[in-house]
């Protein structure tokens, strides 16, 4: 198992960083899913084609991390159907995540596509890096959160402006859950049992996806991978360096 990278909760002093850690806690933990945002394309099971980033280079590194807070599923995704993953940093708990080292320009382009905007405009990260949070709009992923830093580079993610208690939970669809859970498994820091217990307990999934059901799903996907098929060896797939 890979060791978790510890996040220094101190906010970074650099206000215009060239490189940032994009901390994904949803389906973008999976390399093939994130590659669609970076290189462009449509990941399996998605209903949308993505234009990609101005810079199509894949992340330099990808490391497993844990964020302070809680993950929950809510709203209705037109891309996947079912609920989307959101992060509430104000709730006590831990969020299993994967931090991808990308340029600040790439982070802006990934965020734009998550916000249903066209990539190509840089983000002013000053408020997020100074205060730990910046609300860019009322949309689903238009709030930036800085969780601290790793190797003196900021750890950034995006979520909704509301809190977990403010919205009704919505269970995620099978295609979305598959990417999210397999992204966690491929990070190498958590085993199938830990991932299944974590996801099944998240609001929105709880009561709809059982721990055993998620464990069985992961076992089936892992076996398919070991047989040389599925997610890592399909055209356009990507596996980021540790």
Strand content: 15-25%
The total beta strand count reads: 8
Rg calc:
16 Å
Structural class: alpha+beta
Low-confidence stretches: 229-237
Spell out the helices and strands N to C: EHEEEEHHEEEHHH
The largest β sheet comes out as: 6 strands, mixed
Q: Order of strands across the widest beta sheet?
A: 2-5-1-8-7-6
**Tell me, what's the shape?**
globular
Q: What would the average pLDDT be, to the nearest integer?
A: 91
Question: Alpha-carbon distance between the termini?
Answer: 12 Å
Helix content: 25-40%
Q: Number of helical segments?
A: 6
List the helices and strands and how they pair.
Elements: E1 19-24, H1 31-39, E2 62-68, E3 70-74, E4 84-88, E5 94-103, H2 104-114, H3 126-131, E6 133-135, E7 143-150, E8 153-159, H4 174-187, H5 192-201, H6 211-226
Helix pairs in contact: 4-6, 5-6
Quick gist of this model?
With about 240 residues, this protein is α+β, with helices and mostly antiparallel strands. It is built from six helices and eight strands.
Name the descriptors.
242 residues, 6 helices, 8 strands, two-stranded antiparallel sheet, alpha+beta, 21% strand
What does this structure look like?
The protein has 242 residues and is α+β, with helices and mostly antiparallel strands. It is built from six helices and eight strands, in the order βαββββααβββααα. The strands form two sheets. A six-stranded mixed sheet has the order 2-5-1-8-7-6. Strands 3-4 form a two-stranded antiparallel ribbon. A hairpin with a 7-residue loop joins strand 6 (133-135) and strand 7 (143-150). The longest helix is centred in the last third of the chain and has 16 residues, at 211-226. The protein is globular, with a radius of gyration of 16 Å. 43% of the residues are buried. The model is unreliable at 229-237 (pLDDT under 50).
């Amino acid at each position: 198992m890979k060791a978790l990278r510890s996040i220094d909760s101190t906010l970074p002093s650099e206000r215009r960083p060239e490189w940032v850690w994009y901390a994904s806690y949803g389906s973008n933990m999976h390399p093939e899913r994130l590659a669609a945002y970076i290189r462009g394309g449509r990941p399996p099971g998605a209903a949308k084609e993505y234009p990609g980033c101005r810079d199509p280079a894949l992340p330099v590194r990808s490391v497993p991390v844990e964020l302070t807070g809680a993950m929950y599923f809510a709203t209705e995704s037109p891309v996947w159907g079912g609920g989307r993953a959101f992060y509430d940093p104000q709730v006590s708990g831990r969020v299993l995540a994967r931090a991808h080292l990308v340029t600040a320009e790439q982070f802006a382009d990934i965020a734009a596509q998550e916000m249903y905007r066209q990539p190509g405009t840089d983000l002013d990260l000053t408020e997020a890096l100074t205060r730990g949070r910046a609300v860019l709009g009322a949309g689903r992923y238009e709030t930036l959160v800085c969780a601290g830093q790793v190797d003196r580079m900021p750890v950034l993610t995006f979520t909704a402006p509301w809190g977990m208690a403010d919205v009704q939970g919505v269970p995620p669809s099978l295609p979305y859950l598959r990417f999210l859970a397999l992204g966690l498994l491929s990070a190498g820091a958590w085993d199938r049992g830990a991932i299944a217990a974590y996801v099944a307990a998240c609001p929105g999934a709880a009561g709809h996806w059982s721990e055993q059901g998620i464990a069985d799903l992961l076992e089936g996907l892992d076996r398919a991978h070991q047989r040389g098929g599925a997610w890592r060896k399909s055209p356009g797939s990507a596996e980021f360096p540790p």
